[in-house]
């Protein structure tokens, strides 16, 4: 599953109800998985219940596969179990049939590095396989078993095994999520604001993360947050970020942790989004979400992606969303102005930047500072004791200190997140109680 396919030749296929079929994304996805795309078949018509494509087009597909000596057919559509079986029966022996979601899972499997990412991929694979296992059971009862073509071999106990594995993975993921919830709480109590980057693949999220965090190394905070990474990949390929990458950034007087997450893609089914919901928790539980879009894309495509992103985010998101129009270095000012206007209902007051060139990053930082929860001001009067110095040091580490006056008592004025102010009051109360 996780091996790349450097020699596998693939034919891509796509059906649309109307208009012209665009195969650019499915070709990109196939290449991202390591396939060599050697041909394509497209069709504009309503879906055929048995073959997805029309029977005549399936024959043409089989001829193309044979001529190009392809080993795989990749549909840029969602295929039902029986459609996969029927198409497989019409193709040369040994040819694999997969739909876009099977392909996406294959890419995810190749990119999964952490235990959490691997579990989420496995969960998505099992959810994908379950209806196919049920279909194989049905076909087996009718004695239609010759390899099940695209469906794979039949195993009588597989259905029950899948359901048990899904339950076990959910339990393990819940345990990991509990640890991450605790870590987020600790980070907020440590004075950090949490900012998440969201958006479609190749919108430039990883490049923006590197740009925002360019001045600070994670190593400065390694003991407190050992999970933080020092780099995030920036490549022109889909799904370079499968898990999450978090780096420290300084935004005005704030200490911020910025997290880059898996990119959205269009037309994802509910079961696939659900399998990766714990990765999206980094977005859902942030203090602020930066929704990054590629401003060089056609305005209708941007609008469609914004709608899908908002649908995904608004279901569980708790934070304000700021839209970032990225890649301004690739378009002129007039085009940016037109797109701002056209997208104003979905993206009010967006920030236009070029992460690659570092353009307007200061304005984005100012916006981040303005959108994050307000700091509270506090003035504490502490007894002059040895323990007081450690509390003052703690406040320096977790807040923005304005003044400290040392005399018979220590007077410290600072601004911080509400959680930090509350904790500092608690520490001050302990000092006063101890010195009484």
Automatic annotation (TrEMBL):
Presence of keyword GTP-binding: yes
Membrane-spanning residues: none
Coiled coil: 109-189
Compartments where found: Cytoplasm
Gene3D superfamilies: 6.10.250.2860, GTPase HflX, N-terminal domain, P-loop containing nucleotide triphosphate hydrolases
Main location: cytoplasm
Pfam families in UniProt: GTP-bdg_M, GTP-bdg_N, MMR_HSR1
Function: GTPase that associates with the 50S ribosomal subunit and may have a role during protein synthesis or ribosome biogenesis.
Family: Belongs to the TRAFAC class OBG-HflX-like GTPase superfamily. HflX GTPase family.
HAMAP family: GTPase_HflX
Stated name of the protein: GTPase HflX
Recorded name of the encoding gene: hflX
């Amino acid at each position: 599953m996780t091996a790349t396919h450097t020699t596998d030749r693939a034919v891509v296929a796509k059906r649309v109800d109307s208009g012209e079929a665009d195969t650019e994304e499915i070709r990109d996805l196939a290449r991202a998985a390591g396939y060599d795309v050697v041909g394509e078949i497209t069709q504009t018509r309503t879906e055929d219940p048995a073959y997805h494509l029309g029977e005549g087009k399936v024959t043409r597909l089989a001829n193309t596969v044979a001529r190009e000596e392809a080993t795989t057919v990749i549909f840029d559509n969602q295929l039902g179990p029986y459609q996969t079986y029927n198409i497989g029966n019409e193709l040369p022996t040994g040819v694999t049939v997969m739909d876009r979601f099977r392909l996406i899972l294959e890419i995810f499997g190749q990119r999964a590095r952490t235990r959490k990412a691997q579990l989420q991929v496995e969960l998505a694979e099992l959810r994908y396989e379950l209806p196919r296992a049920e279909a194989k059971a049905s076909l087996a009862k009718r004695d239609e078993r010759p390899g099940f073509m695209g469906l794979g071999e039949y195993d009588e106990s597989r259905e029950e095994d899948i359901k048990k594995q899904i339950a076990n993975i959910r339990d393990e993921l819940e345990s990991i999520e509990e640890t991450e919830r605790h870590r987020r709480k600790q980070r907020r109590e440590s004075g950090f604001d949490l900012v998440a980057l969201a958006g479609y693949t190749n919108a430039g999220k990883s490049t923006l993360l590197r740009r925002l965090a360019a001045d600070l190394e994670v190593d400065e905070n390694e003991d407190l947050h050992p999970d933080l990474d020092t780099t995030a990949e920036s490549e022109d390929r889909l799904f370079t970020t499968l898990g999450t990458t978090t780096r420290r950034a300084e935004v005005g007087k704030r200490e911020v942790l910025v997290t880059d997450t898996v990119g959205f893609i269009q037309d994802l089914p509910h079961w696939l989004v659900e399998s990766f919901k714990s990765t999206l928790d980094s977005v859902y539980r942030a203090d602020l979400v930066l929704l990054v879009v590629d401003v060089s894309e056609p305005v209708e495509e941007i609008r469609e992606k914004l709608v899908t992103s908002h649908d995904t985010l608004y279901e569980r998101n708790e934070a304000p969303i700021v839209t970032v129009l990225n890649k301004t270095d690739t378009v002129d000012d007039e085009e940016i102005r037109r797109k701002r206007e056209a997208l104003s209902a979905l993206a009010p007051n967006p920030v236009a930047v070029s992460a690659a060139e570092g353009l307007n990053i200061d304005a984005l930082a100012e916006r981040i500072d303005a959108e994050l929860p307000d700091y509270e001001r506090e003035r504490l009067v502490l007894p002059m004791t040895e323990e007081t110095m450690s509390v003052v040091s703690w406040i320096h580490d977790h807040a923005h200190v304005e003044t400290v006056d040392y005399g018979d008592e220590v007077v410290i004025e600072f601004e911080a997140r509400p959680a930090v102010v509350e904790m500092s009051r608690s520490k001050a109360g302990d000092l006063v109680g101890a010195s009484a």
